[in-house]
Amino acid sequence: MAGKPKLHYFNGRGRMESIRWLLASAGVEFEEKFIETPEDLDKLKNDGNLMFQQVPMVEIDGMKMVQTRAILNYIATKYNLYGKDIKERALIDMYIEGMADLNEMILVLPLCPPDQKEAKIAQIKEKVTDRYLPVFEKVLKSHGQDYLVGNRLSRADIHLVELLYYVEELDPSLMANFPLLKALKTRISNLPPVKKFLQPGSQRKPPISEEDLEKARKIFRIK
Amino acid sequence: MTTKPKLCYFRGRGRMESIRWLLAAAGVEFEEEFIETTEQYEKLQKDGRLLFGQVPMVEIDGMVLTQTRAILSYLAAKYDLYGKDLKETVRINMYADGTLDLMMMTALAAFKPPEEKEENLTLIVKKAKTRYFPAFEKILNDHGEDFLVGNKFSWADIQLLEAILMVEELDASVLSDFPLLKAFKARISNIPTIKKFLQPGSPRKPPPDSHYVEVVRGILQF
């Protein structure tokens, strides 16, 4: 009997959060082992668990998987959330890579020096409303279906909805001109496993606090 | 009769080079449209073919694909270079993602100011020697096979060769402590399609020089 997947990361969103979202949305229960100190990370490295000395790392199906995208691709394929053929997969990949670019900007925002932060936020907001959200609104408009690709739920919908929550956290008014995206967000949020993940007490992580940011900086030795 | 894939990018490595490598290794002939002016780039964006307004872009099988990794994954699957099952695929992904990280650092280093650039390139060689190459040497050592995954040529092997050659351009001695990678390099370089790609006159692009940096900076305005 296979055990639950085990996620190794610090107790925060970072690069692991999209993996948590995907597993949760697929209805897969998982365990988490939090890295709390630099020594915890060193131990993981020294025990030979991290192929490139980096986390995220997920123990799943007898493998110690690293590289966020590799992990997400595996989960999406295993739980049938990656389209029905190579062409649908290509479309999903295009969409999610765009989302990953935007997500990356938001993810690293806490590390931005305070004097540059305002400008950075303005830049991100512009990209949200001018580059990224219009694309996905247009996709939904073009086929009028409930999901981004192939008229059925895929990882593209899950990653997008996760991203829309972050966009809303940044500035709720950014969603104003995207009615179809708002509807997608509501629809996906109402799927039972997603609904459960969105409840308090789930394994979903909050935005990082100053205290936790300092802790993460220490663990990962970021200046 | 199928048309050749068409690659749209600047006349240089950047984010398109791994795609050129993959196509070439698979023995697929392709055409290239080089972006040389801002007007050309703006026209591409206005034509609405760049999903997020960015390149690389590849026209293939009736699709207009953007996003480097989406393109690479599609090609790897199409040309049977992506493993025989999900477990092989995830390994290939892990290895390819690692080497892509390393190569992206190198591609971006070209655009840094001179003081930072030296520092970056030194760091890249260090990461290759202490993080990436040891991992791949170990993989080859553990299974003793000719290829990284499943005893069969895959996308992971192509990426690793590309990364090795890229780092060797920065430090020719970088493989001195990695005998299996040295043998791997020789072996993969001798695969006919790859051997052809390594000849002068192939679509392979040279390392970024100041002219390339200037052109790209001018067009992308950064």
From TrEMBL, chain A:
It is an enzyme of class 2 (transferase). The keyword Transferase applies. InterPro entries: Glutathione-S-Trfase_C-like, Glutathione-S-Trfase_C_sf, Glutathione_S-Trfase, Glutathione_S-Trfase_N, GST_alpha, GST_C, GST_superfamily, Thioredoxin-like_sf. Residues 3-83 form the GST N-terminal domain. The lineage of its organism: Eukaryota, Metazoa, Chordata, Craniata, Vertebrata. It catalyses: RX + glutathione = an S-substituted glutathione + a halide anion + H(+). Pfam families: GST_C, GST_N. Gene3D superfamilies: 1.20.1050.10, Glutaredoxin. One of its GO terms (cellular component) is cytosol. GO terms for biological process: glutathione metabolic process; xenobiotic metabolic process. Its EC number is 2.5.1.18. This is Glutathione S-transferase. One of its GO terms (molecular function) is glutathione transferase activity. The gene is LOC122220024. Belongs to the GST superfamily. Alpha family. Keywords: Transferase. Residues 85-208 form the GST C-terminal domain.
UniProtKB/TrEMBL annotation, chain B:
One of its GO terms (molecular function) is glutathione transferase activity. Its EC number is 2.5.1.18. GO terms for cellular component: mitochondrion. Keywords: Transferase. InterPro entries: Glutathione-S-Trfase_C-like, Glutathione-S-Trfase_C_sf, Glutathione_S-Trfase, Glutathione_S-Trfase_N, GST_alpha, GST_C, GST_superfamily, Thioredoxin-like_sf. It catalyses: RX + glutathione = an S-substituted glutathione + a halide anion + H(+). Residues 3-83 form the GST N-terminal domain. CDD domains: GST_C_Alpha (cd03208). Residues 85-209 form the GST C-terminal domain. Gene3D superfamilies: 1.20.1050.10, Glutaredoxin. GO terms for biological process: glutathione metabolic process; response to caloric restriction; xenobiotic metabolic process. It comes from the Eukaryota. Belongs to the GST superfamily. Alpha family. PANTHER family: GLUTATHIONE S-TRANSFERASE, GLUTATHIONE S-TRANSFERASE A4. This is Glutathione S-transferase.
